[in-house]
Amino acid sequence: MKLSINLVSTVVLFSGLASAANSRRAPTPRRASSLLINPDAFPDLPTVQAATAAADAAGLNLDDIQGDVLIGMKKNQELFYFFSIADAVDFKPKLASDIVPLITTTTQLLDVSTEPTTLVNIAFSQSGLTTLNVTDALGDSAFTGGQFKDLKTLGDPGSTNWVPEFAGTGIHGVLLFASDTVDNINTAVAGLEAALGDSITKVYSLQAAARPGSEAGHEHFGFLDGISNPAITGFTANPMPGQSVLNAGAILVGETGDTVTTRPAWAKDGSFLVFRQLEQLVPEFNKFLTDNPIVEDGLTAQQGSDLLGARMVGRWKSGAPIDLAPLFDDPALGADPTRNNNFTFAHADSVLATNQTRCPFSAHIRKTRPRADLGTPEETVHHIMRAGIPYGPEVSDAEAASSTTSTERGLAFVAYQSNIANGFRFLQQTWANSANFVHAGVGVDPVIGALAGAQRVVTGLDPTDSTKATTLTTDFVVSRGGEYFFSPSLSALASTLSV
């Protein structure tokens, strides 16, 4: 099989990438509009000039970092292409000649004129690295074991609900394709499949997309998602008020702030990618809110249902935090990145350790980012960069009428970090799944908390009675499985992994 003309040209253009992976690239302009979405509530990506200045000051090479790692939840259309390596001897030179030249860097995504038609990134599981005869230990036990081994730790009820292809260690890697149209993605996939031939085998794929129209940036329950992603030193030029600021090593291996010192040199500027396919039972979630409205003077039944949902999440659907808008949504607040993260849960007129009038201790955003609950300045050890995207169709009229899901939809959850144990796994196991965090007896996270299928008891959801217990008999978010991957730098892809 042969590459398309466009792909052949690209390979010729970047044939010297292995020796130039650390130099700044200036691709020929290919776009008039961005392949990314940019809801008002999200902080803007930095300009190329600002990011370059920040990177130079921090000693960070944005041209060597795969583009998906630092941009957050801004993809429009995305395909996750999971593969196994059928012939490592054949695959390695093709990785250098046919894949690496197509890898989109961080710098390329910061200006429309340098964005590719389709973003391409790649990451490998531990079994994939082993197949490539890469024997260096990356210093992450969760990655080494794989997600299938971790399912009990994560609260999954075995692999009963898992996509079969995720059960075991048969997935060696994942290719990420992102663009503004499915046609662009399909063209890129077809070209790369032709180039790689029989060296890989497609195991599974998942097509995902931002929701339509004004719902872009919202997950399927309707809440704006990814608002509180951190700022990264060496990348983010102007952090927003209340935005956590992390050393690059919290996300990137080998950089300042990486807590693991025993890394191979080639792993620098790579990042561990956690992928989870999370089905969302939207009609059932909506029925639960309708059946259990918060009853408070001045609220209609619908407003009481909306308030319950907001208190479970910790934000209104607009993105406005309930800590700042405790009874009614404030869309202007939600859409303002200078205000929608500027809170800590602490208030001068209440006791932080006991008061849940504004926000329950169990609320999703409080479980996963406790802010002042753990003291100030805020801890930054357990932060992740979330880069997920919804998958599946909108809820049909029939599903809404029956309050029953008939077609799968959910979130293709993606998180980057330099340490899975400190990042994703800690957030899920130690905070979201713990009934005693942040205080004893508050219950698990009512959105993503998982107790192997057992019912979950949550307190604090009713602002009129913080001791009232709410029993959740349905997991509104169902794990369909996933895998742990390592997203290497371009220089590592062009050298260590290709020889």
Automatic annotation (TrEMBL):
Indicate the segments forming the DyP dimeric alpha+beta barrel domain, all copies: 64-212
Name the PANTHER family on file: DEFERROCHELATASE, DEFERROCHELATASE/PEROXIDASE
Entry GO CC: cytosol
Cofactor(s) needed, names only, are: heme b
Q: Where is the Dyp-type peroxidase C-terminal domain?
A: 253-432
| A Pfam family matched in the record | DyP_N
Q: Name one GO molecular function term.
A: heme binding
Q: Where would one find the signal peptide in this protein?
A: 1-20
The family classification in the record reads: Belongs to the DyP-type peroxidase family.
Which UniProt keywords are present, listed alphabetically? Heme, Iron, Metal-binding, Oxidoreductase, Peroxidase, Signal
The protein here is known as Fungal peroxidase
